Amino acid sequence: MTMANWENFLKNLGEWQGSFTRLSPQGEILSNTPSILTLEGLDDDKLVKFRLRRYDNPDYQDPPTQDYSQDYRSLGRQIIFFGTGAFSKGPWQLAPFSEFGAEFGFVDGDRRMRFVQLYDKGLSLASLTFIREFRRGSDAQERPALKVEQLLGTWQCQVYTGYPDWREPELSTMEISLSQTGDSVEQRVTVQGQTSVMQGKVMGDQIHFLGPNPSKVLLLPDGASSCTPDRLQLGQPFSGEVGWLVRPNERQRLIRYYDNRGAWTHSAFVVEHRQ
Description:
The protein has one helix at residues 3-9; strands spanning 14-23, 29-42, 47-54, 66-72, 79-81, 87-89, 100-108, 111-119, 125-135, 153-162, 170-181, 184-191, 194-203, 206-209, 215-219, 224-227, 238-247, 250-258, 264-274.
């Protein structure tokens, strides 16, 4: 474990009141569970006490239906924290006949947003868990539901790439432009002078990108989005992605990449500003 990873983890300290919302792979709300999550730093922040309480009612008055605690003095190597406190966590390897999932987390002032993408043993997308958290005692508000119109335009992006060996994240840049005509969208991504183009269709609260590697973006409440394959294929590289529009002209994304052997290769934290 590097000190930088631990210091970035500490940016999540606090008492966070929110909820765990379970979604179908199509983004439909299946259940909602109120929660209070506490991350408390002790012993000069060398120890972090984690406590998660889940409740039946949103007033948090009744005893919790679940109360789980854990102490942390170090972090597993499968999790990378970036400079804002954002993180990507998941298994090292995709394995046949076993469940597979990844968690993504963002921190912005008195807000946190976390998201879990879970696949079943047949490698089909089984469920999504959307976690919206507010620092207890603050007046932090939920952001509006994400709409395609909020993503249009040209975004200048800083990309921080972290690796399993915990070396210092590499910084690179790219440009993303998204335009819309009717229910069709075009996305242009420019990296080091090379531009790739993807075509997509807007279908309700989803964007379906076409081509050899089709993908589906769910547009969600609180400015959030989730992009992940409906099914994973052994022998094929894949990635999972979650985005958060933290301000009208600032979006953050986390992406976790796996290669054709199903091994986790790297994670990226992308900070985008619209021109």
